[in-house]
Protein backbone atom coordinates (compact mmCIF):
# COMPACT_ATOMS: atom_id res chain seq x y z
CA UNK A 1 0.00 0.00 0.00
CA UNK A 2 1.51 3.27 -1.21
CA UNK A 3 -0.78 5.52 0.80
CA UNK A 4 1.59 5.57 3.79
CA UNK A 5 4.48 7.00 1.77
CA UNK A 6 2.27 9.34 -0.24
CA UNK A 7 0.68 10.83 2.87
CA UNK A 8 4.12 11.18 4.47
CA UNK A 9 5.28 13.37 1.57
CA UNK A 10 2.15 15.47 2.05
CA UNK A 11 2.92 15.97 5.75
CA UNK A 12 6.51 16.99 4.96
CA UNK A 13 5.28 19.45 2.35
CA UNK A 14 2.80 21.03 4.77
CA UNK A 15 5.54 21.30 7.41
CA UNK A 16 7.54 23.38 4.93
CA UNK A 17 4.41 25.39 4.15
CA UNK A 18 3.85 26.18 7.83
CA UNK A 19 7.53 27.15 8.22
CA UNK A 20 7.21 29.65 5.36
CA UNK A 21 3.94 31.07 6.67
CA UNK A 22 5.33 31.43 10.21
CA UNK A 23 8.34 33.33 8.85
CA UNK A 24 5.98 35.68 6.99
CA UNK A 25 3.97 36.34 10.14
CA UNK A 26 7.12 36.85 12.22
CA UNK A 27 8.31 39.51 9.74
CA UNK A 28 5.00 41.32 9.44
CA UNK A 29 6.64 44.49 10.81
CA UNK A 30 10.07 44.09 9.19
CA UNK A 31 10.98 47.06 7.00
CA UNK A 32 10.93 46.19 3.29
CA UNK A 33 10.22 42.49 3.92
CA UNK A 34 8.64 40.55 1.07
CA UNK A 35 6.32 37.66 1.87
CA UNK A 36 7.18 34.18 0.61
CA UNK A 37 4.96 31.41 -0.72
CA UNK A 38 5.83 27.72 -0.79
CA UNK A 39 5.28 26.12 -4.21
CA UNK A 40 4.67 22.39 -4.65
CA UNK A 41 4.66 19.90 -7.50
CA UNK A 42 3.52 16.31 -7.79
CA UNK A 43 6.02 13.45 -7.86
CA UNK A 44 6.35 10.84 -10.60
CA UNK A 45 3.48 8.48 -11.38
CA UNK A 46 3.37 4.72 -11.51
CA UNK A 47 1.74 3.68 -14.78
CA UNK A 48 -0.38 0.61 -14.10
CA UNK A 49 -2.10 0.80 -17.48
CA UNK A 50 -1.03 3.21 -20.16
CA UNK A 51 -3.29 5.46 -22.16
CA UNK A 52 -3.76 4.46 -25.79
CA UNK A 53 -3.09 0.76 -25.31
CA UNK A 54 -5.60 -1.72 -26.66
CA UNK A 55 -8.23 -2.88 -24.18
CA UNK A 56 -8.23 -6.36 -25.74
CA UNK A 57 -6.74 -8.13 -28.69
CA UNK A 58 -7.86 -6.15 -31.71
CA UNK A 59 -9.93 -3.90 -29.50
CA UNK A 60 -10.13 -0.12 -29.29
CA UNK A 61 -7.45 2.05 -27.73
CA UNK A 62 -7.81 2.74 -24.03
CA UNK A 63 -9.06 6.37 -23.62
CA UNK A 64 -7.54 6.78 -20.16
CA UNK A 65 -4.77 5.13 -18.24
CA UNK A 66 -4.33 4.04 -14.64
CA UNK A 67 -1.72 6.32 -13.10
CA UNK A 68 -1.03 6.28 -9.36
CA UNK A 69 0.81 9.33 -8.07
CA UNK A 70 3.57 8.96 -5.49
CA UNK A 71 3.04 12.18 -3.58
CA UNK A 72 4.22 15.77 -3.51
CA UNK A 73 7.45 17.71 -3.07
CA UNK A 74 8.39 21.33 -2.44
CA UNK A 75 9.55 22.82 -5.72
CA UNK A 76 10.57 26.20 -4.31
CA UNK A 77 9.77 29.14 -2.07
CA UNK A 78 8.69 32.12 -4.18
CA UNK A 79 9.26 35.70 -3.02
CA UNK A 80 6.25 37.95 -3.63
CA UNK A 81 7.79 41.24 -4.72
CA UNK A 82 4.71 43.44 -4.52
CA UNK A 83 5.09 46.99 -3.23
CA UNK A 84 4.69 47.47 0.52
CA UNK A 85 2.94 50.51 1.91
CA UNK A 86 5.02 53.60 2.69
CA UNK A 87 5.01 54.82 6.29
CA UNK A 88 6.00 58.42 6.97
CA UNK A 89 8.67 58.75 9.66
CA UNK A 90 9.96 62.31 9.21
CA UNK A 91 13.53 61.09 9.73
CA UNK A 92 15.88 62.73 7.23
CA UNK A 93 17.95 59.58 6.68
CA UNK A 94 14.95 57.27 6.22
CA UNK A 95 14.31 56.46 2.56
CA UNK A 96 11.76 54.24 0.89
CA UNK A 97 11.74 52.96 -2.68
CA UNK A 98 8.48 53.49 -4.51
CA UNK A 99 9.07 50.99 -7.32
CA UNK A 100 11.01 47.78 -7.90
CA UNK A 101 14.61 48.87 -7.35
CA UNK A 102 17.04 48.03 -4.53
CA UNK A 103 19.59 50.04 -2.59
CA UNK A 104 23.17 48.79 -2.97
CA UNK A 105 25.38 48.35 0.11
CA UNK A 106 28.98 47.23 0.54
CA UNK A 107 29.71 44.13 2.61
CA UNK A 108 32.67 44.14 5.06
CA UNK A 109 34.22 41.06 3.41
CA UNK A 110 33.90 42.66 -0.01
CA UNK A 111 31.21 42.45 -2.61
CA UNK A 112 27.78 44.00 -2.74
CA UNK A 113 24.38 43.25 -1.29
CA UNK A 114 20.97 44.73 -2.01
CA UNK A 115 18.18 45.87 0.27
CA UNK A 116 14.75 47.48 0.34
CA UNK A 117 15.37 48.66 3.90
CA UNK A 118 16.12 52.38 3.75
CA UNK A 119 16.41 52.95 7.52
CA UNK A 120 19.83 54.53 7.11
CA UNK A 121 21.99 56.14 9.77
CA UNK A 122 25.18 58.22 9.83
CA UNK A 123 28.47 56.74 10.99
CA UNK A 124 30.94 58.64 13.17
CA UNK A 125 32.57 59.88 9.95
CA UNK A 126 29.25 61.06 8.50
CA UNK A 127 29.00 58.12 6.09
CA UNK A 128 25.48 56.99 5.16
CA UNK A 129 25.21 53.40 6.44
CA UNK A 130 22.63 50.71 7.16
CA UNK A 131 21.54 49.70 10.65
CA UNK A 132 24.33 47.07 10.58
CA UNK A 133 26.94 49.67 9.61
CA UNK A 134 27.26 48.65 5.96
CA UNK A 135 28.14 51.58 3.70
CA UNK A 136 25.60 52.63 1.08
CA UNK A 137 26.96 52.53 -2.47
CA UNK A 138 27.58 55.05 -3.99
CA UNK A 139 29.01 56.54 -0.81
CA UNK A 140 27.40 59.62 0.68
CA UNK A 141 29.36 61.58 3.34
CA UNK A 142 27.44 64.24 5.24
CA UNK A 143 29.59 67.21 6.36
CA UNK A 144 29.83 68.35 9.94
CA UNK A 145 27.49 71.14 11.05
CA UNK A 146 24.83 70.00 8.60
CA UNK A 147 21.50 71.43 9.66
CA UNK A 148 19.30 69.50 7.26
CA UNK A 149 19.54 66.85 4.58
CA UNK A 150 17.41 66.67 1.46
CA UNK A 151 17.02 63.73 -0.88
CA UNK A 152 15.02 64.29 -4.06
CA UNK A 153 12.94 61.66 -5.83
CA UNK A 154 15.73 61.15 -8.36
CA UNK A 155 18.25 60.32 -5.61
CA UNK A 156 20.16 63.63 -5.47
CA UNK A 157 21.43 64.22 -1.92
CA UNK A 158 21.91 67.81 -0.72
CA UNK A 159 23.02 69.18 2.65
CA UNK A 160 22.42 72.59 4.17
CA UNK A 161 25.54 73.41 6.22
CA UNK A 162 25.27 75.89 9.11
CA UNK A 163 23.58 79.12 7.94
CA UNK A 164 24.45 78.82 4.26
CA UNK A 165 21.17 79.06 2.27
CA UNK A 166 22.78 77.33 -0.72
CA UNK A 167 22.78 73.53 -0.35
CA UNK A 168 25.87 71.43 -1.00
CA UNK A 169 25.33 68.51 -3.37
CA UNK A 170 26.80 65.37 -1.82
CA UNK A 171 26.12 62.90 -4.61
CA UNK A 172 23.34 60.85 -6.11
CA UNK A 173 21.95 57.55 -4.90
CA UNK A 174 21.34 54.85 -7.48
CA UNK A 175 18.96 51.91 -7.54
CA UNK A 176 19.54 48.41 -8.86
CA UNK A 177 17.07 46.11 -10.57
CA UNK A 178 17.20 42.45 -11.59
CA UNK A 179 15.57 40.46 -14.35
CA UNK A 180 14.40 37.87 -11.81
CA UNK A 181 13.96 39.39 -8.36
CA UNK A 182 12.83 36.04 -6.94
CA UNK A 183 16.25 34.60 -7.76
CA UNK A 184 18.00 36.78 -5.17
CA UNK A 185 19.49 34.93 -2.19
CA UNK A 186 18.39 36.15 1.24
CA UNK A 187 21.35 36.80 3.58
CA UNK A 188 19.41 38.01 6.61
CA UNK A 189 19.62 41.55 8.03
CA UNK A 190 17.25 42.61 5.20
CA UNK A 191 20.05 41.98 2.66
CA UNK A 192 19.88 40.11 -0.63
CA UNK A 193 22.64 38.82 -2.87
CA UNK A 194 22.71 38.40 -6.63
CA UNK A 195 22.83 34.85 -8.02
CA UNK A 196 22.92 33.20 -11.41
CA UNK A 197 19.14 32.84 -11.18
CA UNK A 198 18.57 36.56 -10.49
CA UNK A 199 20.74 37.72 -13.36
CA UNK A 200 23.35 40.47 -13.24
CA UNK A 201 22.55 43.63 -11.28
CA UNK A 202 21.31 46.47 -13.48
CA UNK A 203 22.24 49.87 -11.96
CA UNK A 204 19.96 52.77 -12.83
CA UNK A 205 18.99 56.20 -11.61
CA UNK A 206 15.85 56.71 -9.52
CA UNK A 207 13.08 57.90 -11.80
CA UNK A 208 14.19 55.81 -14.78
CA UNK A 209 11.38 53.70 -16.29
CA UNK A 210 10.71 50.53 -14.32
CA UNK A 211 13.09 51.45 -11.48
CA UNK A 212 11.16 53.57 -9.01
CA UNK A 213 11.79 56.75 -7.05
CA UNK A 214 13.12 57.50 -3.57
CA UNK A 215 10.82 58.93 -0.92
CA UNK A 216 12.75 60.68 1.85
CA UNK A 217 11.29 60.54 5.34
CA UNK A 218 9.44 57.29 4.62
CA UNK A 219 10.05 53.57 5.12
CA UNK A 220 8.50 50.70 3.19
CA UNK A 221 6.34 48.42 5.30
CA UNK A 222 6.33 44.66 4.92
CA UNK A 223 3.92 43.47 2.24
CA UNK A 224 2.70 40.61 4.46
CA UNK A 225 -1.09 40.38 4.57
CA UNK A 226 -1.76 39.01 8.05
CA UNK A 227 -5.34 37.95 7.29
CA UNK A 228 -4.19 36.01 4.23
CA UNK A 229 -1.37 34.39 6.20
CA UNK A 230 -3.74 33.24 8.96
CA UNK A 231 -6.07 31.79 6.32
CA UNK A 232 -3.16 29.98 4.67
CA UNK A 233 -2.01 28.71 8.07
CA UNK A 234 -5.43 27.19 8.81
CA UNK A 235 -5.50 25.60 5.37
CA UNK A 236 -2.00 24.11 5.88
CA UNK A 237 -3.02 22.78 9.29
CA UNK A 238 -6.10 21.08 7.86
CA UNK A 239 -4.08 19.58 5.01
CA UNK A 240 -1.55 18.23 7.51
CA UNK A 241 -4.34 16.70 9.59
CA UNK A 242 -5.89 15.07 6.51
CA UNK A 243 -2.56 13.54 5.53
CA UNK A 244 -2.08 12.19 9.06
CA UNK A 245 -5.63 10.81 8.89
CA UNK A 246 -4.71 9.08 5.63
CA UNK A 247 -1.78 7.36 7.35
CA UNK A 248 -4.04 6.28 10.20
CA UNK A 249 -6.63 4.89 7.76
CA UNK A 250 -4.00 3.07 5.69
CA UNK A 251 -2.57 1.54 8.86
CA UNK A 252 -6.02 0.30 9.89
CA UNK A 253 -6.56 -1.21 6.44
CA UNK A 254 -3.22 -3.02 6.60
CA UNK A 255 -4.06 -4.27 10.08
CA UNK A 256 -7.39 -5.60 8.80
CA UNK A 257 -5.65 -7.36 5.91
CA UNK A 258 -3.09 -8.93 8.25
CA UNK A 259 -5.84 -10.34 10.46
CA UNK A 260 -7.50 -12.27 7.62
CA UNK A 261 -7.21 -16.00 8.23
TrEMBL record:
Give the taxonomic lineage as stored in the record.
Bacteria, Pseudomonadati, Pseudomonadota, Alphaproteobacteria, Rhodobacterales
Chain's gene name: flgG
GO CC term, one of those recorded:
bacterial-type flagellum basal body, distal rod
Pfam families in alphabetical order: Flg_bb_rod, Flg_bbr_C, LlgE_F_G_D1
Q: What is the protein's given name? A: Flagellar basal-body rod protein FlgG
Domain Flagellar basal body rod protein N-terminal, first and last residues per copy? 6-34
InterPro entries reported for this sequence: Flag_bb_rod_N, Flagellar_basal_body_rod_CS, Flagellar_FlgE/F/G, Flg_bb/hook_C_dom, FlgE/F/G-like, FlgG_G_neg, LlgE_F_G-like_D1
Q: Which organism is it from?
A: Roseivivax halodurans JCM 10272
Which intervals hold domain Flagellar basal-body/hook protein C-terminal? 215-260
Can you tell me which family this protein belongs to? Answer: Belongs to the flagella basal body rod proteins family.
